[in-house]
Amino acid sequence: MKWLNRLGIAFVSVVECRDEQLIVRQVQQLRREIKVFACALAAALFVCIAAGFAGLAVITAFGDSHRIAGYFCVASAFVLLAGLAMLLARKSSRVD
Predict the structure, then answer these.
(1) What is this structure's pTM?
(2) Which of 10, 21, 68, 94 has its CA 20 to 30 A from that of 76?
């Protein structure tokens, strides 16, 4: 009867050890995901700032005489980028 008790204790300790390892791995994975999200958020912020400066540069380059054409070029570029983003999102979310 004692060997059955020892076998049960050994089994429980193995299960607890694996549970602890699983928890540690999940915490590490969560930390990695948080870092990736923070980097992606920073990258998105920098892209938005760069896009704003690029638009400003295009509008300035067209000057006062062609200001509407400059606005149209900037808006067209953003529409094309948004369309590309939608196509990429649709492609990546498609289930095969």
Answers:
(1) 0.56
(2) 94
| Domain-wise residue ranges, the chain | 2-93
pLDDT for the residue numbered 4: 67
* DSSP state, residue 65: T
Distance CA(70)–CA(64), nearest Å, equals 10
CA 71 – CA 58 distance, rounded (Å)? 8
CA distance 67 to 59: 6
Q: Is 31 left (phi over 0), alpha (psi -120 to 50) or beta?
A: alpha
Residues 58 and 47: their CA atoms lie apart, in Å, by 16
Residue 13 has pLDDT above 80, yes or no: no
